[in-house]
Design a protein that fits this description.
about 60% helix; 7-stranded mixed beta sheet; YojJ-like (1; 2 domains
Length: about 280
């Protein structure tokens, strides 16, 4: 107990500005790491490493100061090195993704912008083609709210977004055609993902099938944008914030996807205007 008090007294003598800056820097690094790893398996591993390091350092600091256990301190130094090696091995995919992001920043911003624009066109090409052939599909585009738990329930793909890939996934008879595809960034993260269905009583308007109810359900619990292609009519619909807008044109689809994927700007104004318009048309009918 005396060791704790002495440590707190010693910390109190440090310049407050320096302590504040150090704590802020540490907090920013931890926040950035958690935000970068959010929704991935690495997030749980990172939390475990942080807990082990923090708890181990605090306990050993107190024990060594109280009982002068120098050998234990020597062993702990080796333990920290082992944790570092394990972390590098465990975070290998995340480190690779981080280096890719760093490489895309700065001088590669324009090429990254072009890649995201191509991603939009690939999605539109697949959706329009499936709509013309009345192939049912549901595509979930992840935004700020991570969908890692849902991705884990499906079949992990982590493949580049290509129109031919999306059309192959949703082709009738394909092992992956049922349920949803989740897009994370510029990759198809997973297919055959089970989404939560909205309650039938909470869905107003015409009768909706399982795909449309799933689109409404996932957008009620996240900020995802969902594209639905009706298997019966080929109509393209968009779901956001628990609302579903049917009969979306190719130009409007491009506008929404560009806002979400390329610009990453809010899209509420267009969506709410069109949803209200569709709702008023249904009431008049």
């Amino acid at each position: 107990m005396n060791t704790v008090i002495e440590y707190l007294v010693r910390v109190a003598t440090y310049p407050r500005a320096n302590v504040a800056i150090e704590l802020f820097a540490i907090g920013m690094v931890v926040y950035w790491a958690m935000n970068f790893l959010e929704g991935t398996r690495g997030e749980r591993l990172f939390r475990g490493v942080i807990i082990i390091l923090f708890t181990g350092s605090l306990v050993l600091k107190l024990l060594i100061g109280q009982f002068e256990l120098e050998r234990l301190q020597y062993l702990y130094s080796g333990f920290l090195f082992a944790v570092l090696v394990i972390a590098v091995a465990g975070f290998q995919p995340e480190f690779r993704r981080m280096l890719i992001h760093i490489g895309q920043a700065g001088t590669f911003l324009s090429s990254s912008h072009q890649q995201r624009s191509r991603t939009v066109e690939e999605i539109i090409s697949a959706v329009v083609d499936m709509s013309s052939r009345k192939i049912g599909a549901i595509i979930v585009i992840e935004r700020k709210v991570a969908l890692g738990e849902l991705i884990e329930t499906g079949v992990r793909l982590d493949s580049r977004i290509r129109a031919v890939m999306l059309k192959t996934i949703f082709h009738p008879g394909s092992p992956l055609h049922d349920m949803a595809v989740i897009i994370r960034g510029e990759q198809i993260a997973a297919a055959r993902v089970q989404l939560p269905l909205a309650e039938a009583e909470s869905v107003s308007g015409t009768h909706f099938g399982s795909r449309h109810r799933a689109a409404i359900g996932i957008t009620k619990s996240s900020d995802a944008l969902v594209i639905v292609v009706s298997e019966e009519t080929g109509i393209i619909s968009l779901a956001e914030n628990g609302l579903l807008c049917r009969g979306v044109s190719e130009s409007d689809l491009r506008k929404q996807l560009t806002s979400v994927i390329v610009v990453a700007a809010p899209t509420d104004s267009w969506f709410h205007f069109n949803w209200k318009s569709k709702s008023s048309e249904e009431k008049q009918e």
